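pinging the channel bc i need a second pair of eyes. not urgent but kinda urgent?? the chain im working w is below, pasted from the shared doc
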Amino acid sequence: MTKTDLIEKVAEKAGMTKKDAGEVVNIVFDSITDFLAGEAKKAENKRKKVQIIGFGSFDVRDRKPRKGLNPRTKAEISIPAKKVPNFKPGKALKESVDI
């Protein structure tokens, strides 16, 4: 399913235009993104997350620095630490997928 498919489905189920549904979908995605970006900048150990009951939760995780290999030259390179988004599916989502 693409974002366009999602917008069409929302418009159909909510009885609204595709334009309005697109705005709603974009607002939801932008809100989640803005929250996670703000949390990634904080230096707290215990970060908050976006939790949608029945669907899942989004949070930001720290990835430690590590060594890697350049596939072309086989030279060892250093990969710096960074923050990455993470999604954990909720119980209802897991159960609906595991038919």
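so The mean pLDDT is 91. and The beta strands are 50-52, 56-63, 66-69, 76-79, 82-89. — does that match what u expected or am i reading it wrong
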